[in-house]
Amino acid sequence: MQPKGKVGTRGKKQIFEENKETLKFYLRIILGANMALVFSLAVYGASYHSMSSMARAAFSEDGSLVDGGMDLNMEQGMAEHLKDVILLTAIVQVLSCFSLYIWSFWLLAPGRALYLLWVNVLGPWFTADSGAPVPEHNEKRQRRQERRQMKRL
Q1: Are strands 65-67 and 58-59 parallel, antiparallel or unpaired?
Q2: Highest mean pLDDT: which of 21-30, 31-40, 126-135, 140-149?
Q3: Which of 6, 25, 29, 44 has the fewest Cβ atoms nearer than 10 Å?
Q4: CA separation for the pair 86, 79 (Å, rounded)
Q5: Residue 108 phi, psi (nearest 5)
Q6: Residue 66 phi/psi, 5° resolution?
Q7: pTM for the whole thing?
């Protein structure tokens, strides 16, 4: 039920103060809702910064291009892995609107890193030969073996 009589007018200062409080309130809501996305923003920022520093060109004093930077489109380079992280983050962020379990797909990134670490570094290191020297054939023995093979043909 509305009060009887004329509605009082508010002054400019009161409107200003209420607007300021309203903006503060909604800013807090926005920041609170996006706290879950801080990690995503950090990943985006770090990945993009790394890619931009790799692609940084070098110019001489007269302005001619000396170095065009790393090729961000080459296969099996660090830039490819950074692009994969950015795409994974974007996909997880969008699909998490439908289910909170989608955030578990973030485990794909460290899983792939561990796989690449095993395939490229740890696996070959663990399975490498113990370093026993292989006996080398001297030249006379090698020539003798070649002669025997020639006689057989």
Answers
A1: antiparallel
A2: 21-30
A3: 6
A4: 11
A5: -65, -35
A6: -95, -45
A7: 0.56
How far apart are the C-alpha atoms of 68 and 128, rounded to whole Å?
A: 38
Helix (H, G, I), strand (E, B) or coil at 126: helix
Written as one letter, the residue type at 84 is D
Q: Report helix, strand or coil for 58.
A: strand
Six token digits for residue 11: 């002054």
Q: What angle do CA 19, 21, 26 make, to 5 degrees?
A: 95
Q: How many C-beta atoms surround the C-beta of residue 92 within 10 A?
A: 18
State the DSSP code for 120.
Answer: I
pLDDT in tens, 78-135: 888 888 888 888 888 888 888 888 888 888 888 888 998 888 888 888 887 766 555 5
